[in-house]
Design goal:
single chain; alpha/beta; Rossmann fold; UDP-galactose 4-epimerase, domain 1; 2 domains; seven-stranded parallel sheet; two-stranded parallel ribbon; 9 helices
Length: about 300
């Protein structure tokens, strides 16, 4: 891999992946939404070029980017949190955007297309999730991700591109969205507030974004055509334990609002990724423990995010 193009590059995984690509001397074109406030997140480096193109205009990229690429990473997605997950019109458009990303990848000479799916494709599963686990998504977001993965695979085969789909579990780290559990809890504790939380009985699989970036890079280099890889740590803890570790790294005496928030409707209570196939095919193994990753995340928040 010498050149890569990435849509949706300004989030936690996108930034971590770009840093991995830079480390491996890979040229990167980052396709960002026009006027995005998150453009400032992009690493400033001679290997990184930012192109401002909205998701509904991806087919224009071959006229803007006059070069060919090896790998196309499609992270861009509109409507990932809250009520937008069940905005079916919006989710339907995301499927179209994914197919247009494949069309664009083909025109740009890419050999491989890598899509960012989600654990939401599974629905509620009481067990370890692998590529072979049955999928029963329960919201528009999960349904659209599942459909986008399947339809983009068919289109890649028609276009002669290698196709790899990923199902991303719970990622945390610098540049994560403000409304995730980890980031919102850090913000509350830093402000001296009591974060309103559920009882924390969920058993969760959390992966630090730096490791997620390493996984995505490894898939770009070594992933197998036609496969779906789960991206997580492969280990679990009750959510309350993660929260307590987070709290202890800010203020051990801080009060947590455990049980102040009700579980969401159709709450997923168990999440664990089977990363056996990912490790076997690409050599990826997580490096960071949650204790290490959350300490770096909090330090990043104190240095950068808290100033905003």
């Amino acid at each position: 891999m010498k050149k890569a193009i990435i849509t949706g590059p300004t989030g936690a995984i996108g930034i971590a992946l770009i840093k991995q690509l830079i480390e491996h001397d890979v040229e990167v074109v980052a396709v960002c939404r026009k006027g995005s406030a998150r453009l400032k997140n992009l690493p400033v480096h001679s290997l990184v070029t930012c192109v401002e193109v909205d998701l509904d205009s991806l087919l224009e990229l071959p006229q803007i980017v006059d070069t060919s690429f090896d790998v196309f990473y499609h992270f861009g997605w509109d409507g990932t949190f809250g009520s937008t997950r069940n905005d079916l019109s919006r989710q339907l458009k995301n499927i179209q955007y994914t197919l247009e990303a494949v069309e664009t990848a083909s025109k740009l000479g890419c050999k491989r297309f890598i899509g960012a799916g989600s654990q939401a494709e599974y629905g509620r599963v009481e067990g370890v999730c692998s590529a072979n686990t049955p999928t029963f998504p329960e919201n528009g977001y999960g349904i659209a991700k599942l459909c986008a993965g399947q339809m983009s695979r068919v289109l890649c085969e028609q276009k002669g591109l290698e196709h790899v789909w990923t199902r991303i579990f719970s990622i945390y780290g610098p540049f994560d969205a403000d409304n995730t559990m980890v980031m919102s809890t850090i913000r509350s504790l830093q402000n001296g507030d009591i974060p309103a939380l559920t009882k924390g009985e969920q058993v969760w699989d959390y992966l630090y974004s730096v490791d997620a970036g390493r996984a995505m890079y490894a898939i770009g280099e070594y992933g197998m055509h036609g496969k779906t890889y789960c991206i997580g740590s492969g280990t679990t803890r009750p959510l309350i334990e993660y929260v307590e570790i987070l709290r202890d790294n800010i203020d051990k005496n801080a009060v947590l609002g455990i049980g102040q928030r009700e579980y969401a409707e159709k709450q997923v209570m168990y999440l664990r990724a089977d990363i056996t196939e990912l490790s076997r095919d690409t050599g990826f193994k997580p490096v960071y423990s949650f204790e290490q990753g959350i300490k770096e995340t909090i330090n990043w928040y104190k240095q950068f995010k808290h100033k905003e």
